Protein 1
Amino acid sequence: MVVNAQKIKELREKENLSTYALAEKVYTSQSMITHIENKIKEPSVGLLLRIADYFKVSTDYLLDRDNPEAKIS
């Protein structure tokens, strides 16, 4: 599973949230959010679900599966 890190960053910035604030909202660490956005780590399925739920988007959106040209792994 490969998350579109840019989409998470854009959603976070649109809500005017710091990485720390988002981390608190989705029950993870600030460093995890930073690592996800910098493509160092992938989120667990549970964290991906919490991020999607918080922003009211689908996991398919975060995985770039709504883009027909994106590769699905």
Protein 2
Amino acid sequence: MKIAISSTGKNLTDSVSEVFARCPYFIITQIEDGKIQNIEAIKNTVIDQTTGAGISVAQKIAEKDVQAVISGNIGPRALSVLQQFNIEVYNGNGKVVDVLQKFISNKLEKFQ
């Protein structure tokens, strides 16, 4: 499963961002057999967009063929776009690596 996590930095030791659309980075990773693999950090290029950042970034994330997103919070329009692409959206906070372990253990709640 391919996952995108809103992050405050480029590394798994950085924190999950409290915001989705205006987070500095997204960490995209693959979970295979309960293990974190293929880690890629992507700079959020719409962070300074004056309006519609949530919709824009949700579309960009969907283009990466992810099946799930983890963020500290997410706006209703971004959530709607992700759901239209059948991308599951989860709430998480703390270090990215710890949140990914919680995801693997099915201990994260979905945004509704």
